[in-house]
Amino acid sequence: MLPVYQEVKPNPLQDANLCSRVFFWWLNPLFKIGHKRRLEEDDMYSVLPEDRSQHLGEELQGFWDKEVLRAENDAQKPSLTRAIIKCYWKSYLVLGIFTLIEESAKVIQPIFLGKIINYFENYDPMDSVALNTAYAYATVLTFCTLILAILHHLYFYHVQCAGMRLRVAMCHMIYRKALRLSNMAMGKTTTGQIVNLLSNDVNKFDQVTVFLHFLWAGPLQAIAVTALLWMEIGISCLAGMAVLIILLPLQSCFGKLFSSLRSKTATFTDARIRTMNEVITGIRIIKMYAWEKSFSNLITNLRKKEISKILRSSCLRGMNLASFFSASKIIVFVTFTTYVLLGSVITASRVFVAVTLYGAVRLTVTLFFPSAIERVSEAIVSIRRIQTFLLLDEISQRNRQLPSDGKKMVHVQDFTAFWDKASETPTLQGLSFTVRPGELLAVVGPVGAGKSSLLSAVLGELAPSHGLVSVHGRIAYVSQQPWVFSGTLRSNILFGKKYEKERYEKVIKACALKKDLQLLEDGDLTVIGDRGTTLSGGQKARVNLARAVYQDADIYLLDDPLSAVDAEVSRHLFELCICQILHEKITILVTHQLQYLKAASQILILKDGKMVQKGTYTEFLKSGIDFGSLLKKDNEESEQPPVPGTPTLRNRTFSESSVWSQQSSRPSLKDGALESQDTENVPVTLSEENRSEGKVGFQAYKNYFRAGAHWIVFIFLILLNTAAQVAYVLQDWWLSYWANKQSMLNVTVNGGGNVTEKLDLNWYLGIYSGLTVATVLFGIARSLLVFYVLVNSSQTLHNKMFESILKAPVLFFDRNPIGRILNRFSKDIGHLDDLLPLTFLDFIQTLLQVVGVVSVAVAVIPWIAIPLVPLGIIFIFLRRYFLETSRDVKRLESTTRSPVFSHLSSSLQGLWTIRAYKAEERCQELFDAHQDLHSEAWFLFLTTSRWFAVRLDAICAMFVIIVAFGSLILAKTLDAGQVGLALSYALTLMGMFQWCVRQSAEVENMMISVERVIEYTDLEKEAPWEYQKRPPPAWPHEGVIIFDNVNFMYSPGGPLVLKHLTALIKSQEKEPVLFTGTMRKNLDPFNEHTDEELWNALQEVQLKETIEDLPGKMDTELAESGSNFSVGQRQLVCLARAILRKNQILIIDEATANVDPRTDELIQKKIREKFAHCTVLTIAHRLNTIIDSDKIMVLDSGRLKEYDEPYVLLQNKESLFYKMVQQLGKAEAAALTETAKQVYFKRNYPHIGHTDHMVTNTSNGQPSTLTIFETAL
User: What pTM was computed for the model?
Assistant: First the structure.
């Protein structure tokens, strides 16, 4: 496998000095590059050594292993939380000191603010001492502000790094675990679920570390503030604090509700994404059967349930944000109402000290503290899910060491095992055999006999319930469904071994890959796509075989490798590869090709998991065992079981996704590939995932909002927002106005006698209350409305995208890997549902507040507008400069994330292969490399945003300094209330302004998700599903297919695959694609048939007994993609599906590839009976199954070479068909010719014998079955 990256740029942070670290100067070079051009992966700095995935993962794994041991000794359940705490507590505790300093600074600020306002209240132009102390206070105030600006970002950067480390370590452990899962455990989880752990659950760690420290800082700060307020305004401060305390449980109650909704939503999301995965995977089947509507309803229903939960949790979030927005207002209101009613007199200094102190504590207590609780509870849920996964059964690590005498062998004695512990019937029962070097053991038997299970027993995948398996030597394994990973063809064959030219060439030749490599443009350096696109089934099978042979192991387990190729290639592989190259090895070959049994040293016949017979070929013949009845006579079966793949890419392509795939999209899962990931060999190149460049267009915003609501609603929303903000500012302004009036009274009264006049309390309090209520109501209304509209547009866009995906042509699915399409449905839709509405509302609220702050300052001291202009200009340039780089960093982050998931799901499909080759280490290294690449991007994402924030806070600090010193200079013209209002507002700007800008960038970044979704809402469409002109209900009466000079290519500009094909045929289809769900859902996904009909169909394909033995009969859950059935059984299920459908046209693409001759004969017989009224197209390599067809079409390199009745073709000694038949050997050829002759005479001269079971459709004199055949090497 290829190393993922070469040595990258060293990380400048390692040698940065203190100043550079504090202000993030070391990032400047990166911003310069980002300003000049688009950032690429090579521009990213390498990960710091302590952040490498391997280092972090192994560290945490060590603690987890210790924890598991400890729990075992104490007979408890191991706790992952404990392991995490033990691993990270020291480094995380240090960061607490930062929190302490920062929160103290926040509490000190208001005290000095009070002192400055005091100076204005007792303003005496003559008193220069007072002025100087006021300047000193102003200096301390600005110093606090600067400390806050710097510390805050350093702290955040470090806690986010801690979160990243935890996440990376977790991912490493999850992947490591996934590679060790036993098959029992694989049944309990699905690929989708594991991907979800990696994509969603671990992300909670990134958030939880940020807020964790506030769990103790919050209460501490609240106590300090209460003490200060007591000194300032006495007992009435308790009223305000009481409100705060009441708000807390309210919020945590919201939090609890929210997380319960959250986990419900998660299960719906899981289900939706899993179903989506299956839809995308089996898209060809779905299109073929015209099931789009039904699946569309399925997804729509899941989505409806999910959205209703999301809407609920959004309401909660809206209430939460609104309560946050108006909390400080309510607190101040309650405090001062109590204060005044207790008979005290309001003064400006008291009002604004209280307002600022409450402001400081409010953030911590109402935002950070509840956030901490919410994040912690979310993280605990995630940790629990991960812990459950980490505690699943592992496969027992069996060592395959050589015994002391160095003898290699496989010895199985009295072996019994169950795949499913719940079933009574063992998968394998009482097996015993021994294979030594130089021996070839052939394993044969009917479908579902346990042949593949026997190999998995030797591999150690199937644990014995009793008996033993001893394996001495290194194993190479070729799976029944070929597995390839993305990378070059060569890396797929070498699989981590060194490239040795001579040996490599030999292997390529033995595995009949030479010609294929010549046909591929880049030869063996051709990059194979995500699921082996670009290769045919047969090529994949041979690549798999080549990989095994190149490993040069001692023991070879070959699971039916010959069924995926035609007769000639099959013989080539058997003679050159299995008999020559592997002749000194221990070889166990599972096969349905009886003609090769002569060459086997011993033959093992399995049936229903029991060994029927074991011996050599001659012993079998001598003993006259009923060998024939078990597996038919020797000579009848000499042809290959048909399955995709001949060495030449072009020839094969016809049968692979033949012409009609354009109209009806043939399903693509060749040989029922273990996971759907195995598409056609369609020669399409995978397009790069496009990273959109530049800004997010206005169009995207327009579409997004238009999807949510009508424009009238939007105008209403804008008005509502303005009203809320105006009420918000007026409430504070009224307090300052009131304080001023009061102090003016005090002054005048003092002049004329010492009686303090009271203002008309009812009037002032009444207006004050009115404003407060207005603020609260407007705040809540706008929150809920914004959420409602945005969640609504997410729903609309999801439906549009899904509809558009279903209508996309199949080519789209070949060009885009599953991961890429799924990403749109999981991550991007997740953003639209969840984060975008929240971020958007937050942005609107903070933006309006910033506008409010600046307008108040300008209203109080108009000339502040002058320095505001340059600050504003600096800000706009800084933001633009930052976004140039940050957008690229964000995009790099999301593109480097995809390979992590792709690698995981690809590994899960090739799990057995990876374990057989002992390649876990290498896969793990590769995974770590993918993670490190993502960490590089993530690291830049964290640091660049901090770089920007530090600079923004510097701008705010300037603003505070200008307001503070400006008001002192202009002391004559100002009164205390105004100064208090302006200064206290300016102080709130500190965190808020940069938060506002961050949210605006964040909204823009998330709009990329909207863009990506919108991009998929208008893909090119196929023809409409239904035409205006409806055919009569009984249509079609017969299946007719006409090819009229058809040229066909897979993608515009690709090579021609069919050339000038003209033929007239009458013509359904079958492919082992199974969906997760019950057996019933697989046969009849939309409940159109009765149970009786289903059982009859199963009876027809001889699966009835098998299904009846299952614990839940027809309601047994299938594992993901049906992996708990053998491939042969899956094909039978699909045949049953076809029988139920009763279509006019049946296309059988190599239906009997993975089944034994006996079942093959059964299937053929069934097809003749059940589909007598149909047009049947068979695509085959096995001649004896098709010799009795009405016509045979021979294709070579996409051209029609011959098209006639079999017997007629056989008369022509020059015909390709005649040559193929002769290749089988004399006896076989004669038998086939005889069959062809009988069929021919029966059909054309029926008076000779009336046993014709083929219906000839006389309406237009065309026969009703046809076989398509292509040439071999």
Answer: 0.70
